[in-house]
């Protein structure tokens, strides 16, 4: 325990706080010293149940603690950039989970601040660390020369008005697309270049506020000589599927399996019976437990694809 990194956890979603506590507590690299989430009573109960030494009453109180070296931030994008800036300014290392930035301007500012304060700032996307995509990358040679990747993803629209207001079209686009762009960069070993982005939005009135909600996004990118088409749609369920077209074979991925097919055979490379959420959970668990923290594609490169 003496050689582990002392961390604090900032989690703005009380539904996931227990999950993040378990992952961090089970990582051989970290010692969780304190946590914060908006539900103070739940935080106190979880801290008692999970042997976390301390609960902070505000996110800044946690970030300001002197007994932590690193802050792990799992927060809504509208909050995450502020939390990241506060932690970096206090010379803490920052590990941000999922989309943390919404604009190129913010990405550049945080990069400059991180360099000035000599603090590391890493964003983790679970997909690139998950078993099916590790297996796909390892077996990519089976398909030969890759020419095209087709991705289809669906998300569930929040039913509670307060959540809908926090997840307008812009936020939803970033939350749903960053991890996909990152995993495509991992597969192709290339930085993406934007071709086009097309959005279909629906305008609604919620609590006297006019809100644009994302219905469909189609993003076309190039990764070197590979063209990728990403289609994101709202639905009544969450899903992810991907097809990698090569000149010798084709990879088919969905939440249940990863299969390599050609004219002569079908090979099952990975199977799963627990849904897409398990894919994300396993990826995040591996990312935070690996001996070396592997950085994802930098946020600036992702944001340029969506600008």
TrEMBL record:
Gene3D superfamilies (alphabetical): Dihydrodipicolinate Reductase, domain 2 (3.30.360.10), NAD(P)-binding Rossmann-like Domain (3.40.50.720)
Entry superkingdom: Eukaryota
Name this polypeptide is given: Gfo/Idh/MocA-like oxidoreductase N-terminal domain-containing protein
């Amino acid at each position: 325990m003496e050689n582990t990194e002392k961390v604090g956890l900032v989690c703005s979603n009380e539904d996931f706080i227990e999950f993040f506590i378990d992952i961090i507590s089970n990582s051989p690299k970290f010692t969780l010293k304190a946590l914060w989430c908006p539900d103070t009573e739940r935080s106190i109960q979880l801290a008692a149940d999970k042997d976390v030494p301390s609960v902070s009453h505000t996110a800044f109180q946690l970030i300001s603690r002197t007994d932590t070296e690193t802050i792990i931030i799992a927060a809504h994008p509208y909050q995450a950039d502020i939390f990241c800036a506060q932690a970096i300014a206090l010379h803490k290392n920052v590990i941000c989970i999922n989309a943390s930035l919404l604009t190129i301007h913010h990405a550049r500012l945080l990069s400059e601040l991180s360099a000035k304060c000599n603090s590391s700032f890493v964003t983790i996307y679970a997909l690139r660390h998950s078993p099916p995509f590790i297996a796909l990358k390892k077996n990519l040679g089976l398909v030969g020369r890759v020419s095209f990747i087709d991705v289809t993803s669906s998300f569930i629209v929040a039913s509670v008005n307060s959540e809908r207001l926090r997840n307008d079209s812009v936020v939803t686009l970033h939350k749903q697309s960053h991890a996909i762009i990152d995993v495509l960069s991992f597969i192709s070993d290339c930085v993406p270049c934007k071709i086009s982005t097309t959005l279909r939005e629906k305008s609604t009135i919620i609590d006297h506020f006019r809100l644009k909600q994302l219905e469909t996004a189609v993003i076309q990118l190039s990764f070197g000589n590979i063209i990728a088409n990403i289609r994101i749609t709202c639905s009544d369920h969450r899903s992810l599927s991907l097809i990698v077209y090569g000149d010798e074979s084709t990879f088919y991925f969905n939440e249940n399996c990863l299969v390599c097919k050609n004219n002569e055979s079908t090979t099952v490379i990975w199977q799963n019976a627990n849904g897409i959420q398990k894919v994300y959970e396993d990826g995040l668990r591996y990312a935070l437990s690996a001996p070396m923290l592997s950085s994802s594609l930098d946020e600036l490169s992702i944001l340029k694809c969506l600008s």
